[in-house]
Amino acid sequence: MTMVPEPLGCFGRTVGEDPESIATYRAELVSLVGKLAADPAAVAAYLRSGSIVIAIMGYSYDLIDGRHLDLRQPRHRGDRRNGISTPFGVAGGPAIQTDGAYYWRRETADYVEHYHIGLPAAFVDRMRLLDWVTPALDEDHVRAIDRALRSGMQPELR
Length: 158
Prior knowledge:
Shape: globular
Number of helices: 5
Strand order of the largest sheet: 1-6-5-2
Largest sheet: 4 strands, mixed
Order of helices and strands: EHHEEEEEHHH
Radius of gyration: 16 Å
Strand content: 5-15%
Structural class: alpha+beta
Distance between the termini: 20 Å
């Protein structure tokens, strides 16, 4: 039986596109800026190398910077419409990745890299214990995690 990974704080859930959901998620992110208790480059590399469990089409943009909010259009890094650009954007940002013990949105690495977002101490300890190398998960393990996560997630991911 596969253990269901734990959500990695606010990065372990989907975020609706309605203004209230976005504002709540943004407030959580802002409250964690600068609170990372580890090397951001090592953490970002670990996060990026996690297994993709649920691929979700979409584009995530930097909510902390927030300059995109007034444009009401999807934005990409380097896009300078009206002289405004955001620090990062992530194709497939809502996708879910895992290391077998935790799961997170694909965009998490960019928030860590750009803003040194604080993550749960137990997760940071796990990364240190693993010497910053994400465990390799075989296909059966990833599929079992996928089934477990989809059974407990919002209806749009089932």
